[in-house]
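User: Predict the structure for this protein chain, please.
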Amino acid sequence: MSHFNEKVRWALDYKKVPHKRRSVLPGMQAPLALLLRGGTSTLPVIDIDGTRIGDSTRIIEQLERRWPDPPLYPRDPDERQRALELEDFFDEHCAHELRRVIFDPLLEHPELMAEAAGTDKRRGSNALKVLYPVVNRAVRHQYAVNPERAAEGRAAVEEAMDRIERERGPSGYLVGDSFTVADLTAASLFYPLALPPEAPRVIERAPTGMDEFTAPLRERPGYRWIGEMFRRHRNNGGARRA
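Assistant: Here is the predicted structure, written as structure tokens:
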């Protein structure tokens, strides 16, 4: 369910790069990432012809080099710099906070966590149920998830949506007249909150308490913009998976 994973999935699908995806149980991301030696302790990690790369920003940079079309980086140097600055803003000042906002109520529902973990395989679902007390503690510790930090996160998420609404241009995009890494990053990092139909459907219902936060956001232009980016540029991506 990771929004950083969705950021990379979207980039791969947008560029029509055939690939295979593998997921792990919640709480096991750091050990696996270290084992894969992608230069990071978090997922996603991608293996391209034996070269492993971690961190969604570095992965997209490598995809741009190897598969430049369609581009995610603007050709104009100033626009490219602005797009990369926005990518960094949403990565560093929205994604982590939004994860706490989502996980704090979600971790209270083991059945939803099993669903969100992508445990469509019965063995993985059963393992998560058995290990859930350990997983709960590990996830809360790894991502500093608690009610106080979640409250701070909600304020940061609203500020990030403010930024979307300020940066949108007449074209509807954040930078220039075309879809760039800035749009992909902002929209994908919000996907666990917005759950647009074009994205992987990780859970069928939001955990108790989430509607109180999301209901007023749904009326905002920034929230509608997230859905619009998915409709324009994510519709048929999943069909390209190898």
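The chain is about 60% helix and 5% strand.
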